[in-house]
Design goal:
The protein is α/β, with parallel strands linked by helices and about 500 residues long. Strands 1, 2, 3, 4, 5, 6, 7 and 8 form an 8-stranded mixed beta sheet that branches. It has a 5-stranded mixed beta sheet with strand order 9-15-20-24-25. Strands 10-12-14 form a 3-stranded parallel beta sheet.
Length: about 500
């Protein structure tokens, strides 16, 4: 223990050891709950040492794999390290790691892609079996044993509750000014039918404790680290992203004029990525004031809005920033901390709260079909990209749910508006708005046939618009059912053509 140790409780100090020693406490077949959400707050040292241990075991011809449960995606020190040594039997609930993706798609790793709001409660219900170990990053352990959370909460409080053994990584790189920015609500752990209403009426309401707790007797190791989170770099908004943002902002302005939205809108939820950041940049320049956010990740665009004063409060479960934005956050945390609140993801993504607050959800997608079904996870129907994350939690319960994408991909070889999506994550029943650089389709109150003509006219790229109209007209004529007309042998032919030729376009 160093003189500047943040492990202040005697019972925890006595358990300080190296990451290598802590990793030796994890055994083959263990079900391990790890901290981390979108590159923030993940354990930095123990997974690396565990990967070394697994690799050595495999070199000796010994079987050694574990199940890994997290909050969402993590970072190379966790996902890449364990995937490269074939150390994961099962991974859930969300990943964005290229090595994990390769393993999953080649069939050598199991992956359960589930709604982020479901993870903690399903674990408590026993749906995943007994959790053996939890490996959790914290900022500090205080004199009374309270745990100061890190830059992400995710499912940490659930893992601390459920695991037989707990390993804590105390990361002194994380600012002590994070103390007080968290809101840990424990009543979500109550089992049906004894659950209580979650008393959140505003996105910035505090309903819990700023600290996490764990039984000291369960803690088998404390590891001291000093390492930054993974930085998520974003590219500047391009012309397509700016057009998408402009369409969506025009729509919100129209909704305000129509009296369906207040002048300061409703709490915002934004997915992660360059298009989402472009929308947030547009909001930062736009006419709306005194905005709030109730989301799962606070990224660069929202931080910029807080700095400008456009966004007065933001509730999330994690902070995931670029290197430049993270430096600004760390240097100005004392002024920013009163406007940011971090919650467990079972609260940040809870359907009850999302619906009560009337959240405006904005998420990216891979493709949409002409009837409004959305695929946000699979390339050509079979290859996982990342996962559904929290987009389903918000889409199904939002006041207005919007999905955004450029109209084409791969230099025009792929249309992102297709006759039938190759995989369905969000059904036509939940999707209110689809936006591409071509325009915005408001699908509320429309029948399937009305949605089809609207999406084709407003969102499809001109290269594919006539192809879509041709398919739709023939389906309308020949399909046995006229409610949602399809030519089933042809509905996925665009995807088949791409797989065979590398291009969805028909050749003249």
């Amino acid at each position: 223990m160093s003189e500047t140790s943040r492990v202040l409780h005697p019972a925890f100090r006595s358990k300080i050891m190296s990451a290598e020693q802590a990793a030796a406490l994890i055994q083959p077949g263990d079900k391990v709950g790890m901290s981390g959400f979108t590159g923030s707050g993940h354990p930095k040292a123990v997974p690396v040492e565990l990967a070394k241990r697994i690799s050595a075991a495999h070199a000796r011809g010994e079987a050694f794999r574990i199940d890994v449960l997290t909050g969402a995606s993590t970072a190379p020190e966790l996902d890449t390290a364990l995937a490269e040594v074939d150390g994961m039997e099962m991974r859930l609930p969300y990943q964005s790691d290229p090595v994990c993706r390769k393993k999953i798609n080649e069939g050598s790793m199991h992956y359960s892609d589930i709604h982020l709001s479901h993870v903690a409660q399903h674990a408590r219900f026993g749906f995943y079996g007994k959790m053996t170990v939890a490996v959790i990053e914290v900022t500090a352990i205080l004199e009374d044993g309270s745990l100061v959370p890190s830059t992400a909460i995710g499912n940490n409080n659930a893992w601390l509750e459920l695991a037989d053994k707990v390993i804590l990584e105390v990361n002194s790189y994380q600012s002590m000014s994070l103390q007080g920015m968290h809101d840990i609500y424990d009543d979500a752990a109550l089992m049906p039918p004894h659950r209580k209403a979650i008393p959140l009426l505003r996105s910035d309401d505090r309903i819990g404790s700023p600290f996490m707790r764990v039984d000291p007797a369960k803690v088998v190791a404390v590891v001291e680290t000093n390492t930054s989170d993974r930085n998520t770099e974003f590219t500047p908004p391009d012309a397509e992203s700016e057009k998408i943002a402009a369409h969506l902002l025009d729509f919100y302005s129209h909704e305000v004029k129509a009296g369906r939205l207040p002048k300061n809108l409703l709490p915002l939820q934004s997915g992660v990525g360059n298009i989402a950041n472009a929308v947030l940049a547009g909001l930062n320049k736009g006419p709306f004031e005194n905005l709030s956010a109730y989301t799962e990740v606070l990224q660069d665009g929202m931080l910029d809005m807080i700095v400008s004063g456009k966004l007065v409060s933001a509730s999330s479960t994690a902070i995931s920033l670029s290197k430049k934005a993270l430096e600004y956050f760390e240097n100005n945390i004392e002024t920013l901390r009163s406007k940011i609140l971090l919650r467990p993801q079972e609260i940040s993504n809870h359907p009850e709260v999302i619906r009560r607050l009337g959240v405006l959800s904005m998420n990216g997608m891979i493709e949409a079909d002409m009837y409004g079904n959305v695929n946000s996870t699979h390339i050509m129907g079979t290859r996982i990209m990342n996962g559904i994350g929290g987009s389903g939690d918000f889409t199904r319960n939002a006041y207005i749910s919007a999905f955004m994408t450029p109209s084409t991909a791969k230099g025009g070889a792929i249309s992102c508006i297709v006759p039938m999506v190759s995989h369905v994550d969000h059904t036509e029943h939940d999707v209110h708005v689809i936006v591409t650089e071509q325009g915005l389709a408001d699908l509320r109150g429309l029948s399937p046939k009305q949605r089809a003509t609207t999406i084709i006219d407003k969102c499809a790229h001109p290269t594919y618009r006539d192809m879509l109209r041709d398919y739709y007209q023939r389906a309308l004529r020949d399909a046995p059912g006229k409610h949602t007309p399809h030519i089933l042998p042809e509905a996925l032919s665009w995807h088949t053509r791409f797989e065979e030729t590398g291009d969805m376009r028909t050749k003249a």
